[in-house]
Each structure stands twice: as structure tokens, then as C-alpha cells.
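Proteins fold reproducibly. Consider a sample protein:
=====
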Amino acid sequence: MGSLTETVRRVMLGYAGEALNGYSYLTSSADEDVFTVVSVGKVHEERIVNTGLLVRLVHDQIIIERDINSKPLVDALVQAGISREHIILAYAGEAIPELI
């Protein structure tokens, strides 16, 4: 499976690419502790920029801060072999342990 970081990067890359009215980009912090998918496009001549996914890696936990996709990232990560116990859905109100 590779490292947690590699797996998160690979899975999130599946959420990037050409979209109906624009393009979505996978970005990460220099230390690869934070990953985002940012979309840039047009709707009725109005320019739209949106962060559809924001994920933080802290210790051995994946904290999903934002996910507005029709196929939730949590499902794709579990399908890629990451245990659900290592994923926190902060956007859904799941508690983030004090140590994180």
C-alpha cells in the first residue's frame, strides 16, 4: 500500500483533473501534511473558485476537514486499504482527539 502520505496523495489525485466547466488541482503543503483539491471554473460567465477537499495528516490519522464530493473521500480511502479507524470526518462532526 505504501506510506499513508503516498496513499492519500494517490487517492486524492483521482479527484483532480478536468471538470465540466473548469479544472480541479491537487495541491499540498511543503511537508505534505495538508492536501487540498481546488477547483477553478466558470458558471454563467462568473468565475468560481472552490476548495472541495481539505485533508490534514496528523500522526497516523487522516483528518478530512472538508469534502463536498458525490463520492466521499472516506469511501475511496477505505477502498484503497486505509482502515476507517484512521480517518476522522471533521466536516461531519467527528471528534478530533486532543493529542492531534
